Amino acid sequence: MSASVVSISRVSKHFDSVIAVDDISFDVAAQSTTALLGGNGAGKTTTLSMLLGLLLPTSGNVSVFGVDMLRHRYRVLPRLNFSSPYVDLPRRLTVRENLTVYARLYGIIDIPARINALSEELQIGRFLSRPYGQLSAGEKTRVVLAKALLNEPELMLLDEPTASLDPDTADYVRGMLEAYRKRTGTTILLASHNMSEVERLCDDVIMLRAGKVVDRGTPAQLLARYGRHNMEEVFIDIARERRRDLAPADRQAVKP
């Protein structure tokens, strides 16, 4: 892994009297898969939105590929993409029509070939002709992932990439994301509540609580630091502000 693709420095975001993100700083290394974790309201989605330029920070600096996202985000937007099961595509358009519209926005040359390739990769071919609004939650998750892969992005921002998927399909999608990163060298920053997914995919984990970065490390480092067996237990410890300075034996005695 080489230089940072994402750099956030002293960033805060206020919504009137609510502080959603509170003076956070972190870098994301090139070709890594990094998790941005925290409970509901921790600031994950707000942070991703600032990286996309959808929200402007109240203070601080956000850069992607060395470009200031406050001033020149148009320079790098073609190099990244985003997926979230909580952001709908146009519901009356078919899946193929939706993907075609986004492919044109990204300047894809051979649109039918790209859509066909993604439909096979994400197993969405059987409902390409159906209106997006008629799909199940799991089908929509696969379609928004296809949208996020249309331009073969160098940076993917993924919010709950396997939400609503059955275990078999979720496992397939994780394998596809692993293979895509190895093949293309892309960088992935993901928010997830699935801790087994984080342990499988991620090289680095950034923990947020109440808008602040409260810990960071590889999954193995965090497991050792908190004396836990899995990332779900670590997540609960951090969410509940359990101390890290306990002896390992004492940590083991603490029950979630």
From TrEMBL:
InterPro entries: AAA+_ATPase, ABC_transporter-like_ATP-bd, ABC_transporter-like_CS, ABC_transporter_ATP-binding, P-loop_NTPase. Keywords: ATP-binding, Nodulation, Nucleotide-binding, Transport. Gene3D superfamilies: P-loop containing nucleotide triphosphate hydrolases. GO terms for molecular function: ATP binding; ATP hydrolysis activity. PROSITE patterns: ABC_TRANSPORTER_1, ABC_TRANSPORTER_2. CDD domains: ABC_DR_subfamily_A. SUPFAM superfamilies: P-loop containing nucleoside triphosphate hydrolases. It comes from the Bacteria. Residues 6-235 form the ABC transporter domain. Belongs to the ABC transporter superfamily. This is ABC transporter. It comes from Sulfuricaulis limicola.
